[in-house]
Write a structure and sequence with these properties.
Length: 1325
């Protein structure tokens, strides 16, 4: 036990050696040199050693009066090698060079020199930072340990270039700071954001570019200089952002982004006019062209709008957001203009709506290929409507017309379900209307019908109960206030038909024209006065194509009449009253070509002309399962226009050729064929046209009884070409083929065939998805428009491979779904997480791998199967996670992660023992080895701990978390063992340290000194012997000194011949010089008595050489447990430079380190309590040892376990438990334990040893021959003294204890007794 405590003291003092290192006063770094300056009297670096590369960086030093300047010249080639494991050579104050002894404190590394500007991408990636001294002092893998910026490559390899550091930068935004281990900080921002292109689907703007921040809080987006509200930011990542933005007008905008404080370029984007539909007109007559679409007007006044149709300029242009109207002049029949492109829409009672429908005389109607004779046909002058009453009900039939030998397209029509309204024209004030439904399906008899207006207002019908025949039944509907014609649909169950309801028009009784050209009309207009005030009544002058409106405020409108002035400039021959878009003819005027005086014809009418050619023949969107017409893609404008009707029965259908689509029964896709099935009577695709590639995919069709099956055979080469702009060829029901007219809607595209498993990395990047039909129906750039998954390459290029689609995937986590435009969904997860390696800085675990989710909510981390609390997750990205985790013991752990629902591999990580420091011992004597470090023990009971030093096995191992002690046997001097640079290997349960710690025998080293009772006591290792050791002070050998060195060579005590003041001291042992320390012994103390009673006592302490500035202060005595006692002035003299103070010492036992301070002066000594007096000891025949004396004051210490018996035999020390001692106030006794075969037995009192008996064993008889020891006083200066020193700071010493551990601060401060080492017990091995 005494040896353990002795070397515990040595260890704690040895901690201080790490402080006897160079302390530069200044460090300057450049790309040409490193310059260190030091105090002239201090240590300094002579070389930096890069041990992995066997490379040295030497310094050349020049001395000034007080400053030493050391320079190492550097160029780029040298700087490339400054990496990997480092050590140093240090020159002592006497010029001795010590190599591989001193580590380099990180604060002593030079600041890096950054060359150029470091501007990484916001999305991260491999990025080079150039400069000098970039990784000095970095033995891990990052510049900033807390965010783990990894290097690419290994810093220990010779090929590593330390001037061009490739960082695997994980990305970021805004200004960031790298901090090197020496505290140097380098701030940088990222590359400027760049917008490459803009696109829009008219609900949002999508910007594609680079270096955008991925957090919405870090970006501000501007459109035409106006910041976009963050609520309209749909998504953003490093290469894309999307904002809600609609634009109804044709215009240019400028878009830019401020991201992370950096402004991007401004990019122009044009919202171009988008004409979608145009009507046809008679070639020889010309007429009104109506173009519908989007953004067909501008917000700019006096905008220039030009419409050209082929070579023909359109005139009299009127534009609105969604429509342009203009006049196209007649074209002579002899011209070379193409005249084809007939488009037909239709309705039935039956009213067809289309273009170029002919005349009443020239047009023939065919139903199921049979011409319909004896029909009354009514075609308006503009050839856009055709009205007829069929001779029979039309059910699921084909209809077309022939005009002057030209056949129209074929449509399918069914008129079986229809309605009749009564009255047909309800009052504008609202009215109950009865609607009779005909041919209601029997499955729908129990339902009530619903009437729906074009604004989606619905009215539920009420059963009139007029009959039990529900196939043809009447219901009543409460029609609200309204005006004009209104398109309606009537639905019951799964049946729907379309008609219209038009409100009653005013009755005009008479009109006349006055001489002043004022037209005046009379009638009852009471119910219409509100409509006039709301601008829904005005005058329309019609002259050929032109139609001019007279503003409402130009009409004198009254409840019984209205009047207005005839405007001659229009030279009109028709004047109408327009009421809610319905026209009532007022007067026809015949102009005399010479006199220009109108000859009016007065029109008297009781009812309006209900079937005028001005009716609004635009149909609401409808879906009818009995018709080919699928209007799901009709524009919003179409949905909001009126549905026409007749004065009688109206069943309404609408069909334009561009929306006449095949009706599919099924679509099957495989990697060998595409199979489409259709109704035998419907249209069908004959080819898919890939116009960018001039490539066709033909279908071969077979007809069954009711089904047509069309197949296109596919292989990989064919599938590669299925991309780019698409159209189709369609076979009509009459076998005519139309190409390029009928679009291939995305919902009719085949489902993709995904080959293999698509498992992209969570961090994203270029990722291939394999399969067939991957980009059919995609004309933009993404599989999922709302997440903008880009293709790599142009889908319009011939080289584009549509079977190996390279996606610029932006990354994600967990299960995701791609949805193709046809509705097909493909769900996938990401690649499984993989942990490649684990590292630890003992405060956290860092895992490096791939495919980790970057959101902490999506991951669960497990250590040895136990989930880590999310509060301990420091950071995570796709390739790294860090969790708080400390481990004080040597052990193995298993780490895994569940990320996005996927579990990683389990990776083993060993917290290896980390021996950091070892003492030296005499080679020929052996001794106690103390290894300090981290994780030097295990939590496992009966752990296997092996310590090998070179080839030598250490014995009697005792381990704790931070320390291992063991005994090394003497080594014969004649052996071949090397004495220096032996590797220290520590194995705990098979886990071996991987750091390098070297041990050397017989290396004298002075850790520290104390000044007990005015003497000097050096504490260190291998301090030699009384005969071999020489002491040097200020390079002068101290002769005629009495030197006392203990047997373990760990303490050296001497009394200096003269006071030592601010001097250099070292020793030489057998020619080996120790390190140099600085020492000052001018301020010291002496205690009287030196050994106070264990019950407490007043002790007088004399302070010697007190500084004059501290004379007015009172001294303080501090124990190792920080108990302080204030001194009391004894007033024994007026000489305060050497003055005595009294201190009331409390109850205690054993030796106690103390410090005594006064003002700014502190010295260290020790106080040890009086030991018990043993008067005599004897051994009985039964081998019982019995000792007598006065032990009254020590009985409490015995009961508290502080008194026991120590058997010492060579190195081994065995304690007899306290309860084995019969302890009384006047004696104690115990049984001699033969098995220890001890030759020394001690009473251990509060860690102080009193010798009891020496026993000589006869080697044959094994009978002990006792020697009885009588002693009146204990040996006070025994080598068992607790040489453990409290943390001290002495401004007069080289020893600066600012970095001493907490353990040191809590240990005892050593002291020396008045007796010399001559009185030590000499056989305590």
């Amino acid at each position: 036990m005494k040896i353990i405590f002795l070397f515990l003291f040595v260890f704690l003092i040895s901690e201080i050696v790490g402080l006897s290192v160079p302390h530069p006063k200044g460090i300057k770094s450049s790309n040409r040199s490193l310059v260190y300056t030091y105090d002239i009297n201090g240590y300094f670096y002579s070389k930096f050693l890069f041990t992995d590369l066997n490379f040295q960086l030497p310094f050349t030093c020049e001395n000034g009066s007080s400053i030493r300047t050391c320079t190492s010249y550097v160029d780029e080639e040298i700087a490339k090698n400054l990496h990997g494991s480092m050590s140093s050579c240090v020159i002592d104050v006497d010029g001795s060079e010590l190599c591989n002894v001193f580590s380099i404190n990180t604060k002593n590394y030079p600041n890096p020199i950054i060359q150029g500007e470091f501007k990484p991408l916001t999305k991260g990636g491999h990025t080079i930072i150039k400069g000098y001294y970039l990784i000095l002092g970095i033995s891990f893998y990052s510049i900033i340990p807390n965010i783990k910026v990894q290097f690419v490559g290994f810093v220990y390899e010779e090929s590593f270039d330390a001037t061009n550091l490739i960082l695997d930068y994980k990305g970021g935004c805004g200004e960031k700071t790298f901090q090197w281990p020496n505290g140097f900080k380098y701030s940088f921002n990222h590359s400027n954001p760049t917008i490459d292109k803009i696109s829009s689907d008219n609900s949002s703007l999508v910007a594609i570019g680079s270096n955008f921040c991925s957090n919405s809080n870090d970006v501000n987006i501007f459109i035409d200089g106006i910041q976009v509200d963050k609520i309209n930011l749909i998504s953003n990542d490093h290469e894309l952002f999307e904002v809600r933005y609609t634009q109804q007008y044709c215009k240019s905008i400028y878009v830019n982004i401020v991201s992370g404080g950096l402004e991007s370029n401004k990019i122009k984007f044009e919202f171009k006019p988008l004409p979608l539909k145009i009507n046809s007109i008679p070639k020889v007559k010309g007429g009104l062209i109506t173009i519908t679409g989007e953004r067909l007007s501008s917000q700019i006044n006096n905008s220039s709008i030009i419409v050209k149709i082929g070579n023909h300029q359109c005139k009299n242009i009127i534009s609105s957001q969604n429509e342009i109207t203009c006049n196209l002049d007649p074209v002579q029949t002899g011209s070379n203009d193409d005249s084809i492109g007939l488009h037909v829409n239709f309705s039935i009672n039956v009213k067809l709506i289309g273009d170029c429908l002919g005349t009443n005389e020239s047009t023939q109607i065919y139903i199921d290929d049979i011409q319909q004779l004896n029909l009354t046909i009514n075609i308006n002058d503009k050839q856009t409507t055709l009205l007829f009453t069929p001779l029979n009900q039309i059910k699921n039939s084909k209809l077309y017309i022939i005009v002057n030998g030209k056949k129209s397209n074929v449509i399918q029509i069914d008129s079986s379900f229809f309605v009749k309204l009564s009255p047909l024209s309800p009052s504008v004030l609202g009215q109950i209307v009865n609607i009779t439904l005909y041919n209601v399906n029997i499955l729908n008899h129990n339902n009530l019908p619903t009437l729906t207006f074009m604004d989606n207002t619905t009215i539920k019908g009420i059963d009139n109960l007029n009959s039990n025949e529900y196939s043809n039944h009447t219901y009543s509907f409460e029609i609200p206030i309204g005006c004009g014609r209104n398109g309606i649909s009537v639905s019951i169950g799964n049946q729907t038909t379309y008609s219209e309801l038009y409100y009653e028009l005013p009755i005009i009784t008479s009109c006349s024209i006055d001489n002043d050209q004022t037209i005046r009309c009379f009638g009852n207009f009471t119910n219409y006065f509100n409509f006039y005030e709301n601008g829904k009544i005005n005058i329309l002058f019609s002259n050929s194509i032109d139609e001019i409106y007279l503003p409402t405020n130009s009409i004198d409108f009254k409840i019984d009449s209205f009047s207005f002035e005839l405007n001659k400039k229009y030279k009109t021959n028709q004047v109408y009253l327009k009421v809610c878009n319905e026209l009532l003819p007022i007067i026809n005027i015949e102009y005399n070509s010479t006199i220009q005086t109108p000859q009016p014809t007065i029109i008297n009418t009781l009812k309006p002309q209900l079937n005028s050619s001005s009716e609004q023949e635009i149909k609401q969107n409808k879906t009818n399962s009995n018709s080919y017409s699928s209007n799901e893609n009709i524009s919003n404008k179409q949905k909001n226009e009126k549905i026409p009707s007749e004065g009688r029965l109206i069943i309404r259908f609408t069909l334009k050729l561009t929306t006449s689509l095949p009706m599919f029964w099924g679509i099957k896709s495989s990697n060998t064929s595409l199979v489409y099935t259709y109704d035998i009577n419907g249209l069908f695709y004959s080819k898919f046209l890939f116009t960018d590639l001039n490539y066709q995919l033909p279908f071969a069709c077979e007809n069954g009884s009711s089904i047509r099956t069309c197949t296109s055979y596919v292989d990989e080469e064919i599938a590669k070409n299925l991309h780019g702009s698409m159209s189709s060829c369609v076979i009509d029901v009459d076998s005519s083929e139309l190409c390029g007219e009928v679009p291939l809607y995305t919902k009719y595209c085949p489902n993709p065939i995904i080959q293999g498993e698509f498992k992209p990395p969570t961090k994203g990047g270029h990722t291939i998805i394999k399969g067939y039909y991957l980009v059919l129906g995609i004309s933009f750039y993404s599989i999922i428009p709302n997440t903008k998954v880009f293709f790599v390459g142009n889908i319009g290029d011939e080289s584009f491979d549509a079977t190996n689609l390279i996606l610029d995937y932006k990354g994600g986590c967990g299960e995701k779904t791609f949805q193709w435009p046809n509705g097909f969904k493909y769900s996938f997860n990401h690649s499984n997480p993989i942990i490649d390696k684990i590292s630890s800085d003992n405060s956290s675990l860092v895992a490096i791998g791939s495919n980790f989710c970057s959101n902490s909510n999506d991951v669960n981390i497990f250590i040895d199967g136990i989930q880590v609390d999310k509060i301990n997750l420091i950071s995570i990205d796709h390739e790294l996670f860090e969790v708080r985790y400390t481990q004080q013991y040597c052990k193995s752990i298993y780490v895994n992660i569940v990320s996005g629902g996927l579990e990683s591999n389990k990776i083993k990580f060993e917290f290896k023992p980390l021996p950091l420091k070892i003492n030296s011992i005499p080679k020929v004597k052996g001794g106690l080895i103390t290894i300090t470090g981290e994780r030097l023990s295990s939590q496992i009971n009966n752990s296997s701990i092996i310590v090998k030093i070179g080839k030598h096995q250490c014995k009697n191992i005792i381990s704790s978390q931070n320390e291992i002690t063991c005994n090394l046997d003497p080594v014969q001097t004649g052996s071949n063992d090397d004495s220096i640079g032996l590797h220290v290997n520590v194995s705990i349960n098979g886990i071996i340290n991987d750091n390098i710690l070297l041990f050397s025998f017989d290396v004298p080293f002075i850790y520290d000194f104390i000044l007990p009772q005015g003497q000097v006591k050096l504490i260190g290792d291998c301090l030699g012997t009384n005969e071999s050791t020489q002491i040097y002070i200020d390079d002068i050998q101290q002769l005629n000194l009495t030197i006392n060195i203990n047997d373990k060579q760990t303490t050296l005590l001497f009394t200096p011949l003269n006071q030592i003041k601010n001097s250099k001291l070292y020793i030489i042992v057998n020619g080996k010089k120790s390190n140099v320390i600085k020492i000052d012994s001018s301020f010291f103390v002496k205690l009287s008595p030196l050994s106070p009673s264990v019950l407490g006592q007043i002790v007088n302490i004399t302070l010697n050489n007190v500084n004059i500035l501290n004379l007015n202060n009172l001294p303080t005595l501090t124990f190792i447990d920080n108990t302080t006692i204030k001194g009391i002035d004894n007033l024994n003299s007026n000489e305060y430079s050497n003055h005595t103070y009294s201190f009331e010492i409390p109850i205690g036992c054993g030796r106690n380190g103390i410090s005594v301070s006064i003002g700014n002066q502190t010295t260290y000594s020790e106080l040890y309590y009086e030991l018990p007096i043993i008067t005599s000891c004897s051994i009985d025949n039964d081998q019982t040892i019995r000792c007598f004396g006065n032990f009254t004051n020590y009985f409490n210490f015995y009961e508290n376990g502080k008194i026991n018996i120590l058997f010492s035999n060579s190195i081994d020390e065995i304690y007899l438990p306290t309860n084995s001692i019969d302890f009384k106030i006047d004696s104690f006794s115990f049984q001699l334990n033969k098995k220890y075969k001890t030759n020394q037995v001690y009473l251990n009192v509060c860690n102080e040893l009193l010798p009891i008996i020496n026993i000589e064993y006869n080697s044959t008889i094994q009978t002990p021959q006792p020697t009885i020891i009588n002693t009146l006083k204990p040996q006070l200066n025994s080598s068992s003294e607790q040489e453990i020193k409290q943390n001290k700071t002495n401004s007069n010493s080289y020893s600066s204890n600012e970095n001493i551990s907490n353990k040191q601060k809590n240990e005892k401060i050593p002291s020396e007794g008045s007796n010399s080492c001559d009185n030590e017990i000499t056989n305590l091995d």
